[in-house]
Amino acid sequence: MVNLAVVCPVMTGARDVAIVGAGLLGLAAARVLTARGRDVVVLEQAHIGHAGAGSKGSCRIFRLGYPDPGYVAAARRAGELWRDLEAESGRQLRWPTPQLTFGPGVGDVQRALQAAGAPGELLPAAAVAARFPAVRVGGPALLEPESAVLAADLTLEVVAARAGEIRTGVRVLGLADDGRQVTLHTAAGPLTARTAIVTAGPWSRGLFAPLGVSVPTTPTLEQVGYLTPIATGQGSGPGGTPIFICHDDQAPYGLPVPGSPLYKIGIHTSGRGTDPDAQDQSPDRELLGRLSRVAARLLPGYDPEPTATERCVYDNTPDEDFIVDRIGNVVIGCGTSGHGFKFGPLLGEWLADLATGATHLPDPRLRGRFAVGRFASRA
Predict the structure, then answer these.
(1) Both 354 and 208 in a single domain?
(2) Distance between CA atoms of 163 and 228, rounded to whole angstroms?
(3) d(Cα 144, Cα 116) in Å, to the nearest integer?
């Protein structure tokens, strides 16, 4: 059983690590630290997978395809850690599913895969149509054989079960770092820890402002839809509907839902800005109209009108690179910009390493790109 009791955090003595936010990043970091024998507590303002969380929902895409060899290499390492998590838990979290990447940016993705030694095959449009009739790509597409669909809700459950002590319903109002330890001021009283990890998504910016650290992230509220197949027999696997990502100005994407005939679609970073404390979870009719037009154009095997909808908050950085850094005794992990879930176990390791002073930090091709100070230097 996962310890999800609401307990007053007032106590004597400092914890080794206090983690703010029980999304995938916070839980993944807690899992790693707990396995290393650290005294860890996770504070979550609501509950795991709550309606306003960025980690909630049915499923996510795991892919290697990025137009950047550093991200490809990081995704390959994350894939190894996903397999380790499945072996450890005895639960299937990944459903291997072929992926089609197409659009104007497909050449950059192919070159990055090649540079990182990852597989990928460029197929002509006729071959794509013959193999995947439920998707209409309108040109050549890169077939990525190592992609998969991740069960997001099940992943949170599995990781939380290995994350140590989790306290829900405890909102952190502020942080203070005196150089020796961090005091977390919460609605239930203060808690002290030698190190704090802040993985609070769009709430991270407000927590760091009193520390004099600028975190220039912008929350947006995205819209996804779930489509029903027109004919029976659609789905993932051989001959079924693959994952797709179109690298054009709109950046639409889609993926089959494990154990369901439904197909999830969205448009990357298309939502409006939002206050994370005042998210309107009702459907956005304008964005749903855009999704229906995307479905009619790219998914002839599905009814273009979504049968179900869902909102999802993104925590965006100006360059869409993550923020993974340490300032004093506080570690920050945020700015996942709608593409961080696939890296969850790897980001958990990086954050745990930063909290404990270990040196197994990001791939050299990414080191420095995730520092929060990069924005100040650009300014």
Answers:
(1) yes
(2) 36
(3) 14
What are the tens digits of pLDDT across the range 148-177?
A: 999 999 999 999 999 999 999 999 999 999
C-alpha gyration radius of the chain: 21
372 exposure class (CB count in 10 Å sphere: 0-12, 13-18, 19+):
buried
Pairing mode of beta strands 99-102, 243-246? parallel
Q: Kindly tell me the sign of the dihedral angle through the C-alpha atoms of 91, 40, 334, 276.
A: positive
Q: pLDDT (tens digit, 9 = 90+) per residue, 274-318?
A: 999 999 999 999 999 999 999 999 999 999 999 999 999 999 999
Residue 245 corresponds to which amino acid?
A: I
In terms of residue numbers, what domain contains 235?
96-148+218-316
Tokens 């929902």 correspond to 57
Q: Is the pTM of this model over 0.85?
A: yes
Q: Does residue 57 carry a pLDDT above 50? A: yes
Nearest CA to 147 out of 65, 253, 90, 87 is that of: 65
Phi, psi for residue 341 in degrees, rounded to 5 = -60, -40
* Beta-bridge partner residues of 150: 60, 94
Nearest residue to 194 (alpha-carbon basis) of 372, 19, 370:
19
Domains identified in the chain, total number: 2
Domain end call among 266, 286, 316: 316
From 62, 52, 99, select the one nearest 83 (Cα to Cα): 62
Whether residue 329 sits in one domain with residue 253: no
User: Distance (Å, rounded) from C-alpha 62 to C-alpha 85?
Assistant: 14
Residues 211, 223, single domain; the answer is: no
Same-domain status, 114 and 164: no
Buried b (16+ CB within 10 A) or exposed e, 223-236: bbbbbebeeeebbb
- What are the residues facing 43 on neighbouring strands? 20, 167
d(CA 139, CA 16) in angstroms, rounded, equals: 54
Lookup: tokens for 89:
């838990």
224 alpha carbon, distance to own chain's centre: 15
Domain shared by 144 and 251, yes or no: yes
Residue 373 one-letter amino acid: G
Residue 208 sits in the same domain as residue 254: no
